[in-house]
Amino acid sequence: MPAPLAHDPIALARENWRHSGWDAAADGMALVTSIMRIQQELLARIDAELRQFDLTFARYEVLMLLKFTRRGQLPLGKIGERLQVHPASVTNVVSRLTDDGFIRKVPHPDDARSTLAAITEAGSRTALAATEHLNRQVFACLPLDDDDQIAVYERLATVRHAFGDFT
């Protein structure tokens, strides 16, 4: 991990925006850039923590989605829809999870054109172990108190809703 910078480069960019006459957009640029940077940091930390489980965050998300379904299985298209990812990404992740023995592909009982991804017992155990680990190492130790976490979540949910992420 690189050493922390001496100054906040986003704050500097924000000032540069203002000096360039883009005052109305400076705060938005700083917010968007900060969110993108936090996403990079969180993804890197989560992927580092998941490495011991032979998972990436994308594979972990699929396992947890299947774990939370009633039957432990979903059509591949539904996985992409719920995780909001491209079908090719779902195919790639499902293939890797299948190779690792964490899920199995099964024919859809009502639609011969569709395939279901079903979590295996090994996948279920791995998903639970990975979740307990992430809860301890990442999710329960963010540098915000509970009230701030809820406030940030709610404000970001407002933005996501405005962008059409959900209805």
Describe the structure.
The model has no long low-confidence stretch (mean pLDDT 95). The protein has a 3-stranded antiparallel beta sheet with strand order 1-3-2. It is built from 7 helices and 3 strands; from the N terminus they run αααβααββαα. With 167 residues, the protein is mainly alpha-helical. It has helices at 9-19, 23-50, 57-67, 76-83, 87-99, 121-137, 146-162; strands at residues 73-75, 103-107, 115-119. α3 (57-67) packs across α6. The chain has 2 domains: 9-53; 54-167, Winged helix-like DNA-binding domain superfamily/Winged helix DNA-binding domain (Arc Repressor Mutant, subunit A, Orthogonal Bundle). Helices cover 63% and strands 8% of the residues.
The poorly predicted ranges are: none
Query: Strand order across the biggest sheet?
Result: 1-3-2
CATH topology of the largest domain: Arc Repressor Mutant, subunit A
| Quaternary structure | single chain
Coarse structural class:
mainly alpha
Query: Mean pLDDT across all residues, rounded?
Result: 95
Sheet having the most strands: 3 strands, antiparallel
Gross morphology is elongated
SSE run: HHHEHHEEHH
Radius of gyration: 20 Å
**Tally of helical segments:** 7
Q: What share of the residues lie within helices?
A: 55-70%
Number of strands: 3
Strand-residue fraction? 5-15%
Count of discrete structural domains: 2
Summary?
By secondary structure, this protein is mainly α.
Topology:
Layout (H helix, E strand, L loop, with lengths): L8 H11 L3 H28 L6 H11 L5 E3 H8 L3 H13 L3 E5 L7 E5 L1 H17 L8 H17 L5
Antiparallel strand pairs: 1-3, 2-3
